[in-house]
């Protein structure tokens, strides 16, 4: 390695641009990977986790790091673009060591790790050398609360107890630290963990948060987490999921367990999921959202705008109001047409929806193949389309994100 620092703290590395030798940006540094060598030796740094375009995180071994400076990291040679998967003995410094409770060797008490210092040895290897620690932290801090006392010290790795005498970073702390992370990004973080850690973190998430995160994970990991929750908790989480996502998840579970979960769910929530599961796989009915925004022709523009403002609606679902004859719950009365958000914004608030209906765009049949739905959305540049049954009743709507999940490869979230 040339022109590099021989000592650096991990927190200073986070977010730095990583470049190849030609000066092309590879991505941003997101974490550092170390391997424990037992209580008598400092943990060895074996590589960096770099987020490349597409939000994929890849592993760059330290043998490929040419320099680490205050404003950039330069790697040499080719980088394997396969998605990073944490192995058994590997520890992610940011995800697993930051906020980790530790004990001082001299018996002076406990503390919380806030940063980790790396040093380069004479042989060119990197290892943990120091810890930046907040001392005197009460046990309540392990739930994400901070002590008013701010006694922070820089200590050598030899001054702390290592191995089984220290607890791993608590799942509560990890959840609290990443509370504002978007569900898709939190799912990425879970995906990179080993199975044991993934299940531990998932178990500490609130039902609604876990439901949002589950919807962003690969199918195999969704089933893995749901199966580990226990039937009662799993049913509660399924109730918090969008019906189409809950149906997709249940489709990958054994028949006996699936029926047990449906029986434990709230009757109204389960009803929507059962309807979706009844459709043949690959049809519009099997992937639709059964609860789009539905109003009558007498409803006003003002009422429609208030309906699409609901926070729980996705942007795609909020883009269209479907107009039907009562009843308004799917399957509704006769489907009349739809009103796009642009039409609502151009019309006067008191105007009835029946006066601004778009009746030219035909809805899709609930038995139509997904490929037909994709062509329809692409042909007319739509973000959503209504789905009707053979009686002409609205049974749901399909949005762009619904079909994307089904036309992309099954493992698109974790593709190399």
Automatic annotation (TrEMBL):
<dbReference type="InterPro" id="IPR000644">
    <property type="entry name" value="CBS_dom"/>
</dbReference>
<dbReference type="Pfam" id="PF00571">
    <property type="entry name" value="CBS"/>
</dbReference>
<dbReference type="InterPro" id="IPR058838">
    <property type="entry name" value="SH3_actinomycetes"/>
</dbReference>
<protein>
    <submittedName>
        <fullName>CBS domain-containing protein</fullName>
    </submittedName>
</protein>
<dbReference type="InterPro" id="IPR006668">
    <property type="entry name" value="Mg_transptr_MgtE_intracell_dom"/>
</dbReference>
<keyword id="KW-0129">CBS domain</keyword>
<dbReference type="GO" id="GO:0015095">
    <property type="term" value="F:magnesium ion transmembrane transporter activity"/>
</dbReference>
<dbReference type="GO" id="GO:0016020">
    <property type="term" value="C:membrane"/>
</dbReference>
<dbReference type="Pfam" id="PF26205">
    <property type="entry name" value="SH3_actinomycetes"/>
</dbReference>
<dbReference type="InterPro" id="IPR006669">
    <property type="entry name" value="MgtE_transporter"/>
</dbReference>
<dbReference type="InterPro" id="IPR046342">
    <property type="entry name" value="CBS_dom_sf"/>
</dbReference>
<dbReference type="InterPro" id="IPR038076">
    <property type="entry name" value="MgtE_N_sf"/>
</dbReference>
<feature type="domain" description="CBS">
    <location>
        <begin position="357"/>
        <end position="416"/>
    </location>
</feature>
<dbReference type="Pfam" id="PF03448">
    <property type="entry name" value="MgtE_N"/>
</dbReference>
<feature type="domain" description="CBS">
    <location>
        <begin position="288"/>
        <end position="356"/>
    </location>
</feature>
